[in-house]
Amino acid sequence: MTDPFNPYLPEVATILETVQETHNIMTFRVRFDDEAKMKAFTFEPGQVGQLSAPGIGESTFVINSPPTRMDYLQFSVMRAGEVTAKLHTLTAGDKIGVRAPLGNSFPVADMKGKDIVFVGGGIGMAPLRTLFLYMLDNRADFGKIRLLYGARSPLDMAFSAELPEWTGRSDIETTLTIDREAEGWQHKVGLIPNVLLEMAPAADNCVAITCGPPIMIKFTLEALKKLGFADEQIVTTLEKRMKCGIGICGRCNIGTSYVCVDGPVYTYAQLKQLPNEL
Amino acid sequence: MAAVKYIPREKLPEWLKALAAQSRVLVPVEEGGSVVFRQYDPARAPVFGSDATAPPKGAVFPASQELFSYAYGKEGEDHAPTLKLDPKTEAQPTVVFGSKPCGARGFLIFDRVYMGKKFPDPYYIAAREATVFVTMACATVENTCFCHWVGSGPADAAGSDVLLTPVEGGYTVEAVSEKGAKFLDNPALADGAAKAAEAEAVKKASRDALGEAPDIASSPAALLALFDDMEFWRDQSDKCVSCGACTYLCPTCYCFSITDEGTGTAGRRMRSWDACMHFQFTLEASGHNPRPTKAHRLKNRVGHKFSYYPTLHDGLIACCGCGRCVKSCPVSVDIREIVQNAVAKAKG
């Protein structure tokens, strides 16, 4: 007999592995303790979950592993408050709660057959990673794939263990950039929006997906507009305080739209339709 | 509705005692100058005349409620960490006896959200199904009442199971729901046909006393049009002190927070009422706050009730017009004024 669905009750999961990505970003690879539930679990790229440290609380993070790789669910956590500080003390073998999947997902069906440009800054690479890897795992369904990933310095670059693989693939074009020159750095130097303009991806039949710090998003959007991308061709994700994650508690709503249910993935066209409360 | 029944005033205690024998019965009682819902005690006479200071919202949606308990432990020879979560969704059979129609109507607004298709709430559903609302039509109205603005009225049965109407010597009793129909199977209740006309007259008199409702059909569009007009919202919120009385006393406010309480190894996760009028409500871990001023917060509160919720739920206004927010506001912020101001401003 299965329990009736309880949207507030997390699934107990075990941390299989942690990776210290940067000084303040830690990645968690987790697996539900209930093997049947782990096997039955499905999600779409871009969906989020609430990681729960009972006794402290829970916070929202994107599931940044793709649904094509289900050995574990991966979340990357930037330390910013009580819950994240607690999560950062955990290690392999520890138990956490996972309430997922929540929110909407990237419009993958609309992206099929198109060229793709990913523009990620710092922790913003996490929501891109799930879609990026999903596309690599379904490579034939998509056109040209380009990734522009930037951070302030090499030490601020998450997923550094994977970068050699990404830059080494011949079927995608990966550009890494840091804001200022650093010793030993062999890739690009420059601010993300400027590097994007240099790359000058063609807007025809192309979708741009961008995530990162608000200031970076602002100038990246300007750059994309200059390159001819229409509002519908630009996809991003909103970060807003999500408490319940199921569209009730009233914190994340912007007018009639609840970011935790109607988002967090929005096209720029959809964002411009929302009232101004960000 | 089914056949009308009648109960003489002097037989009410008998009925209440019978109910209390098998359910928790909540009745309005006077307490420190306020009228609040408390468990029925024969030694303490219920106060049925005026509206309770606080609605019976807590009967179904407690001010604080345990979602689940948690316990960390170790097991096996290698002391592997464990975590057990134990949810508590059971609800106690309850009768809310003597609420005014506005207090029960609040659950119409709750139902659409908490009994939604995507995330049905097991705590709310259990409590809602376990609770019977025996509601009392209003024989008198107050100048803060505006239920007729929002599609309700002094004898509105929406959200209730049984409707009582005060008549000479007692009350007529009408079943509103299936739950309510079963409820009327009681020898203390006599046939009420002879009192039906008087009951209808009482209902009509109360409705007439409220007068005509203003036309606020355009409020959803008006409030959305004023979303970026912060000067308007600063004017409306100027005197607000962000105390949250309006939200805590509102029968339709359903927002909450979730917190963990306990020691490092065991405790519980609680869901508690929260207030969107508080600064901390939308404060993010980064320090950013999308609703930083009381103008933003009032805009969201009024917008939610008269614009966002109706837009999402077939035009149903998320307000019962009970007037508690008007009455309880220490600086007399009046939501009726705000809505009318918004409609007028969007029009002109």
TrEMBL record, chain A:
Gene3D superfamilies in UniProt: Dihydroorotate dehydrogenase, electron transfer subunit (2.10.240.10), Nucleotide-binding domain of ferredoxin-NADP reductase (FNR) module (3.40.50.80), Translation factors (2.40.30.10)
Pfam families recorded: DHODB_Fe-S_bind, NAD_binding_1
Coiled-coil ranges (or none): none
PROSITE patterns in the cross-refs: FAD_FR (PS51384)
Annotated residues for binding of [2Fe-2S] cluster: C244, C249, C252, C260
GO biological process terms held by the UniProt record: pyrimidine nucleotide biosynthetic process
Keywords recorded for this protein, A-Z: 2Fe-2S, Electron transport, FAD, Flavoprotein, Iron, Iron-sulfur, Metal-binding, Transport
SUPFAM superfamilies, per database record: Ferredoxin reductase-like, C-terminal NADP-linked domain, Riboflavin synthase domain-like
Cofactor binding note: Binds 1 [2Fe-2S] cluster per subunit.
Cofactors: [2Fe-2S] cluster
UniProt key word Magnesium: no
InterPro entries in UniProt: Cyt_c3_hydrogenase_gsu, Dihydroorotate_DH_ele_sf, Dihydroorotate_DH_Fe-S-bd, FAD-bd_FR_type, FNR_nucleotide-bd, OxRdtase_FAD/NAD-bd, PyrK_electron_transfer, Riboflavin_synthase-like_b-brl
Record-annotated FAD-binding FR-type domain positions: 8-108
Gene Ontology molecular function: any one: oxidoreductase activity
Name this polypeptide is given: Hydrogenase
Organism of provenance: Solidesulfovibrio carbinolicus
The organism's taxonomic lineage, starting at the top: Bacteria, Pseudomonadati, Thermodesulfobacteriota, Desulfovibrionia, Desulfovibrionales
UniProtKB/TrEMBL annotation, chain B:
InterPro entries: 4Fe4S_Fe-S-bd (IPR017896), 4Fe4S_Fe_S_CS (IPR017900), Helical_ferredxn (IPR009051)
One example GO MF annotation: metal ion binding
Location of the 4Fe-4S ferredoxin-type domain: 230-261, 308-341
Keyword entries, A-Z: Iron, Iron-sulfur, Metal-binding
Pfam families per the UniProt record, alphabetical: Fer4_22
Record SUPFAM superfamilies: alpha-helical ferredoxin (SSF46548)
Protein name, per record: Hydrogenase
